[in-house]
Amino acid sequence: MAVKLNIAILSLLLLFISIPKAKSTVLDVVANFGAKADGKTDLSTPLLKAWKEACASTTPSKIVIPKGTYLLSRAALEGPCKSSIELQVQGTIMAPANPSAFNVPEWVVFNHVDGLTMSGGGVFDGQGAAAWGKNNCAQNKYCAALPLNLRFNFVNNAMIQDITTKDSKQFHVNVLGCQNITFQRFTVSAPENSLNTDGIHVGRSNGVTILNSNIKTGDDCVSIGDGSKNVVIQGVTCGPGHGISIGSLGKYEGEEPVSGIFVKDCTISNTMNGVRIKTWPASHPGSASDMHFEGITMNNVGNPILVDQEYCPWNQCNLKVPSRVKLSKISFKNIGGTSSTQVAVKIVCSSGLPCEGVELADINLAYNGPEGPAISQCSNVNPKLSGKQNPSACSSKPSA
Ligand SMILES: *[C@@H]1O[C@H](CO)[C@@H](O)[C@H](O)[C@H]1NC(C)=O
Q1: Ligand 1: which residue has its CA nearest to atom 14?
Q2: How many Å separate Cα 120 from the centre of its chain?
Q3: Please, what are the domains in the chain?
Q4: Which atom of ligand 1 is found nearest the CA of 159?
Q5: Cα 111 to Cα 150: distance, rounded to the nearest angstrom
Q6: In whole angstroms, what is the distance from residue 398 CA to residue 342 CA?
Q7: Whole-model pTM?
Q8: Bridge partners, residue 66, by sequence
Q9: I need a labelling partner for 97 at 20 to 30 A (CA). Which of 2, 220, 317, 357 fits?
Q10: Helix (H/G/I), strand (E/B), else coil: 217
């Protein structure tokens, strides 16, 4: 009898002990914090209250934004937090359409968070159409002041999945100073004519993975800035847009090296460029190495393979002074499909610092235009060639 009672008490105790461990706190912005999915009540205060509570919790918590349409003026979600947080976005969150509603270039931002999951199938709609007209960086600097949809600043160990960012006023996503952050089944959606709307921009981060994602936008699908290390882009479809880019590098003083960039098994369609590395001439010193592009299908892509160390949009620089960014260990392997420009392979390296360790293997890019078949163009580079080379590599004339 005493033994049985002890067992009963023990199981009851175990039950109580195990409850808080098994179940994370669920914070529903509508049920618990008074948010309204009416498309006009500001979600900002309910979301910030839920975040504050989640951030103070010593056990993992989950914030839920249920299905429906919300207006969100702005949200800065600040860490450090006491435990990990899952933000489940099921609804559609809209930004104010008017760009002058923003006095800082950010809309939704995560700062200094360790252990973040964002999921739920929801949408962040930047309502950017009214801003794009004001976004011509060639003519003014106003573009830099427009808000980005999502910023991840100093966020570590994060998983962002099944989320859509739509019609951002500027870049869709900026990843800065992060470690171990993964985007998967992530969607970027904006029209081809939306200016300066890079899909995901990565800078000064280590361990960024972009998997099985679909990016349609008006600028680079993914752009990789200085200080990016160990970036994997795999199973991404890109287009319309400007392709997948490393750079531009060398414009600013004190840029950090880029190393370990792997772009694999991607499909790029109807874009201005395919895979590209760009550095400014007359530049500050810098370096980028270990950059590998493998298994890329190009459909009607301009400049499918492009290394451009004379990147100088709007003639903002002195083309006579070579780039001081050193490029090395670059491979392009198994890249095929169709080019929309005759120069399908262009590798223009710095005359001051030629590229080193460039490899081209199994390239098969077709061009069907009145000028003739596809050609390649190279300078200050002596690539190692293997497998098929169509166009014939680094010839300046059309191949016979
Ligand atoms: C990277 O982050 C994920 C969360 O997305 C986590 O599960 C994993 O353990 C982290 N990896 C390392 C090496 O810390």
Answers
A1: 157
A2: 19
A3: 23-390 (2.160.20.10)
A4: 5
A5: 11
A6: 9
A7: 0.92
A8: none
A9: 220
A10: coil
